[in-house]
Amino acid sequence: MRQRVRGQEPLVPVFVEHVHAEELAAIGRVLDACPELERLVQHDLLRGGVAANRGRPGMTAAQVLRIVVLKQMRALSYDALAFHLSDSQSYRAFCRLGILGASVKKSTLQENVSRISPRTWEQLNAVLVAYAKQSGVETGEKTRVDCTAVETNVHAPTDSSLLMDTVRVLSGLIRRAADLVDVQWSNHRRRAKRRAIAILRASSADQRRPLYIDLLKVTEMTIEYAEATIAALKKDGSDSARGFALNLERIVALGKRVIDQTHRRVVLGESVPAAQKVTSIAEPHTDIIVKSRDEVIYGHKVCLNVGASGVVVDCVVHEGNPADVTLTVPIMKRHAEAFGAPPKQVVFDGAFASRANLAAIKDLGAEDVVFTKSQGIRLHEMASSTFVFRALRRFRAGVEGCISFLKRCFGLERCTWRGFPSFNAYVQASVFSANVLLIARHLLR
Question: Which residues make up the CATH 3.30.420 domain(s) of the chain?
Answer without folding.
Answer: 119-154+285-426
